[in-house]
Amino acid sequence: MILAKIVGTVVATRKDERLVGNKLLLVQPIDPDGAPRGNHLVAVDTVDAGAGETVLVVSGSSARMAGDLKETPVDAAIVGIVDSIEVTASEG
Q1: Count of structural domains, the chain
Q2: For the domain that residue 38 is a member of, what is the CATH number?
Q3: Is this structure's pTM higher than 0.85?
């Protein structure tokens, strides 16, 4: 799973018919402290997430298992909205 923040929406008037009706959001992967890491992703929203929210994203074959996307050509799907993150300091 990828921790990410929603930073925008993607509108595609011409797309594969299996994507019609799905909301596409632009997400920025983040570390647990909220700092950006990696490249932006376009993800199908399965949980009615909104701008600025921190979300859980799955990719690859896991994305097609989310929601009702089994026959949909997706590589990333938002599967959860994060309420809080708690990082426990490790002893070393």
Answers
A1: 1
A2: 2.40.50.220
A3: yes
